[in-house]
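Treating backbone geometry as a discrete language has practical consequences that deserve illustration. The sequence in question and its structure tokens are set out directly beneath this paragraph.
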Amino acid sequence: MKKLILSILVVACTIAAWAATGKSDNPLIFTSIRTNPITPIKNQSRSGTCWDFATVGFFEGEILRKTGKVYDLCEMFVANKNYMDQAIYHVRMHGCSRFSEGGSADDVLWVLARHGICPEEAMPAPGTLIGDSLANFTEFFKVLTPYVETVAKSEGSKLTPQWKVGLQGILDAYLGKCPERFTYQGKEYTPKSFFNSLQLNLDDYISVTSFTHHPFYSWFNIEAPYKWRQRLSYNVPLDEMMAMIDTALDNGYNVCWGGDVSEDGFTRTGLAIAADIEHAPDLTGSDAARWLKLSKQEKAESLKKLGAHTPELVPTQELRQERFDNWESTYDHVMLIYGKATDQNGREYYMVKNSWGKTGDYKGTWYMSKAFIALNTTYVFFNRNAIPGKLNDAYNNILSNSNF
């Protein structure tokens, strides 16, 4: 019995020592400065639909801000309509575009404007049609992509409209059929009449970016593979883009963010820092060459160990452009910025709602430093009424010239 107790104590001490090794010597302590209301965190699971979940969550937040009502809108309705639109575009391009699970905030805006929306309960829950409890596109896109590519690269002289019928069958089989009519809280709706009841003016929503390969204070289509819709973004200097995010949040508006999360400073535990590897030798134990050989998990553990003392890159317009042009900073994720915070050293962060369920140290929220956002933003999408002044004038001008 004594030997058993001793063995248990040894194992317990070993586990405790192992658990301690991953802890930070300088744990981050966050203080919230501004927190805007959001709807519950969801889980996109095994589907490349961050653009869908984040932007639907953004619009849910807009409804909450305007009316005080909480809605659970249907991401799979948006996905069903958007993948058909994307397939049609890909076929029109004879396969010379990207057909994928990815998208942008503009896709959700377009679907709402053209097709409307339905509540989550009006369609099968994500994944249930294939026996899963959450969205799972593993088989779905292995079926869908070859079908679309075959049509897009057809050697025939003319296409029949039947390819769309077949495609719709695949979409409905895996995502669920979009309802033509449904009942919600005792009232019958169509997707369009339901959207109209939500009191959203889609002319209010714009995309803003900051790059030097186009003139500032002009509109252009961002050259990012997942932004296949030809909807323009307004280009401003970096400091102005960052000020717009702050102004929107301070005025009670959330911001939909599209950018790069493949950086070493973006961890799976809820933290994103623009880590300056060259000036943080403790991250590597030796030199930068060794850092590059570490796994993603090992890098995250090293960053966590430095914690509040992790040095950051200083974001500049030039560095941002260089990283975009050399593919160091790409467009691969969409999330929802809903607040601001500082750590114990005064470093500023944005509080960001992710769509990976209530994971990480902060139950689905990521603390992303201002430097990380400044360097890795592809675009921000928000309500133009959150920013008074010339931005509204610029948008009104482009609308009047019918260039959108």
